[in-house]
Amino acid sequence: MEKIDTILLADTILTMNAEMLVIEQGAAAIDQGRITAVGPAEEITMRFHAASVIGGSGRVMLPGFVNTHCHAAMAYFRGLADDLQLKDWLEQHIWPAENRFLSEEFVADSAELACLEMLKAGITTMNDMYFFGAATARAAKMMGMRAIIGAGIVDFPTVAGDGADTYLAHAEAFIQEWRGDPLIAGCIAPHSAYTCGPETLKRVKQIADRLGCLIHLHVSETAWEVGEIQSLYGKRPVEHLASLGLLASNVVAVHCVWLDESEIEALSRNGVGVSHCIESNLKLASGIAPVVKMLRAGVRVSFGTDGAASNNDLSLLGEVSTAAKVHKALTGDPAVLDAKTALHMATRGGAEVLGIDGLTGSLEAGKRADIISFDMRKPHLVPMYDAYSHIVYAARPSDIDLVMVDGAILVKDGRATACNESDILAKAMEWKVKIGAGKRS
């Protein structure tokens, strides 16, 4: 027998591989952070001897969720300003709060809270966009999470820099600093085409091409944005980005709510990945992205939570369930965005959008062990006829009993194991006092 670190057992394994293989009474063999084998439990336990055997009856196992768009360090701004249009929300509330409170310490502490929330919700990989990216990277690394951290770029001064030159220089240095880390990678994250002019976006592309990294930006989030880009440049946002060379397979276009048919075709033709953040879009009344049309056109669509300040939670499972239902209502077709498709978008599909599907996103031999398990022995989860359906339409983040990233168990029996949760929550309450006082003054 081969000696390995861990065997994980489950009644049902949703591998999310290319064949969408489902294994009943299955097991995964884990060694040195990597999946060694996945198959029937009887075969795995006969082939391997593990130092630890975990899971079993009542569990559904699947790859960890991949959150393709997040502003992790905005967790401390959750509930600060709600029930507003995006433009007013940003300009009148969020940007002033950021100018007042943003710092390395703030970002590190708030990102730590966000990572805790995401891990307990089964998110094993996040794609972030914010300032002070090194602080977010250190927090994610400490929490054991896989992350692609986007260095934020805008054309105007903030507490994080005095303009595009500074942000771009910081971005390049940050991406180089984290190159080769097993969990953390950097990318370049221009906020949008309305906060970054054409010359800045051209320089973003040059850096991304030179360093071989992702470009992560908001695209066509609101009708106002479309009108603004048209008035400035005479083109719709996707057409404008195309003219600058910013449509490519290394681009993660976030939101994509207000697209016309030609823009959808352009995204598909150029291999652009899309992050669908339906709950943030609904809450801000920004609209609903034409996801069904994008999928039918061959666009790679994934899910993002957006930040906790606009969502107001970091549950990718919530995005999956909401999207699967809303798009049925929009189209009048209960078969569109079915449970299996939605779950693919949250796992392997998300990894493909981020270009890391060789590492994660499915349970296959050779991939890193980013795995979650649901405890289905709950009143709202029995009896179970179809695991895809139950995960998408009935399960909750609180049903997740195990989370593993790179072979390390970060959540067990629903409790965080790699951090002091009480300390993280206490820091959040300390910051709440500071932010609340600042809001009143």
Outline the fold blueprint.
Elements: E1 2-14, E2 22-31, E3 34-40, H1 41-47, E4 48-63, E5 65-70, H2 86-101, H3 104-120, E6 123-130, H4 133-143, E7 146-153, H5 164-177, E8 184-190, H6 198-211, E9 215-219, H7 223-233, H8 237-243, E10 251-255, H9 261-269, E11 273-276, H10 278-283, H11 291-296, E12 300-303, H12 316-331, H13 339-346, H14 348-353, E13 371-375, H15 387-393, E14 400-405, E15 408-412, E16 415-416, H16 421-440
Parallel strand pairs: 1-4, 5-6, 6-7, 7-8, 9-10, 10-11, 11-12
Antiparallel strand pairs: 1-2, 2-3, 4-13, 13-14, 14-15, 15-16
Helix pairs in contact: 3-4, 3-16, 5-6, 12-13, 13-15
Distance between the termini: 67 Å
- Summed up, the helix count is 16
Calculate Rg over CA atoms: 21 Å
According to CATH, the homologous superfamily of the largest domain is Metal-dependent hydrolases
Spatial sequence of strands, sheet with the most strands = 3-2-1-4-13-14-15-16
Low-confidence stretches: none
The overall average pLDDT, rounded, is 96
CATH topology (fold) name of the largest domain: TIM Barrel
CATH architecture of the largest domain: Alpha-Beta Barrel
> Structural class of the helix and strand makeup?
alpha/beta
> What is the top-level CATH class of the largest domain?
Alpha Beta
Helix content: 25-40%
User: What general outline do the C-alpha atoms trace?
Assistant: globular
Count up the domains: 2
Characterize the biggest β-sheet: 8 strands, mixed
According to DSSP, the number of beta strands is 16
